Amino acid sequence: MTEAILLVGGKGTRLRPLTMNTPKPMVPAAGVPFLTHQLARARAAGIDHIVLATSYLAEVFEPYFGDGSALGLHLEYVTEKEPLGTGGAIRNVAAKLRSGPDDPVLIFNGDILTGLDIEALVDTHRTAGADVSLHLTRVADPRAFGLVPTDPDGRVTAFLEKPQTPEEIVTDQINAGAYVFNRSVIDTIPEGRPVSVERETFPGLLAAGAHLQGMVDSTYWLDLGTPQAFVRGSADLVMGRAPSPAVPGRCGDRLVLDTAEVAPDAKLTGGTVIGAGARVAPGAEVDGSTVLDGAVIEAGAQVRDSLVGAGARIGARTVLDGAVIGDGAEIGADNELRAGARIWCGARIPDAAIRFSSDQ
């Protein structure tokens, strides 16, 4: 297998304000746009042609990645005029594929950080003679996900969307967001209208007697759909818990990009990233957080499990704990924001104006 479809069209609503100016796959994780990690892992698995299915802020992708040659890839871009859902997006880019009808095509989502063995998924698909194969992972609480029970041979027996009662939870296996399709199956997806692979394509194939195979791979897996998950994923990449050949530096407690300035007595721990041109002043402590390009953390500030947007400023002695600060926002001195607080892009918070903020 040498080609793939990467679905990067979502609006990233749950990640706002991070995605107000930047599409979700382009938000930096461990020093580079998250999409870079996915492309690098696909290339390492032997894929050389990837079609990006874009929609929201579609104009951002190609100027950054170009034709993909810098990553050893050939990239192409197809933009949806109207949102088409996962299945519709896959069908919308089919004309760019080079595969024959029986060839496998990898499909993956632009918001999943995973250690999936891509080659093993393709091998499973070929060995089973499947029409579609799905990466499955196990989670402790599957209620927020689509359940995918399988028989003893790994063949999918049903698709159960977001069960709520104990009787509905028949397995801890969930759809992990990476698939291998035979090209001929892609061509059967209806054109020109929204289609959900989870709710329409997969159940329809199963009802028609198609062979859908599941492969459970319980290595690292994280849905980066919320700011808290995104910050955690970036930290895990920096610390080496999540695998990626695209991390621009050695794994460890911190990643400080070129042109960033960090005071000698500032403490950076827990997989913290300090972006290019950012500045961390004396006595500041930053733990498990992402500080994007050009942001400033002033003296004595404490930043934990938070994301500070590009060009934002965090005032002296201010405490952030589980907070998200939008691009260009300014938080005055002696504030305290905790428990999922979100400050919009360009907002201004005066000194000592907030001592505690929660979204609960």
From TrEMBL:
InterPro entries (alphabetical): GMPPB_C, Mannose-1P_guanyltransferase, NTP_transferase_dom, Nucleotide-diphossugar_trans
Protein's name according to its UniProt entry: GDP-mannose pyrophosphorylase
PANTHER family noted in UniProt: SUGAR-1-PHOSPHATE GUANYL TRANSFERASE
The species this protein was found in: Streptomyces albireticuli
Domain called Nucleotidyl transferase: residue spans: 4-236
Any Pfam family the entry gives: NTP_transferase
Residues of the Mannose-1-phosphate guanyltransferase C-terminal domain: 253-332
Family designation: Belongs to the transferase hexapeptide repeat family.
Residues of the signal peptide: none
TM stretches of this protein: none
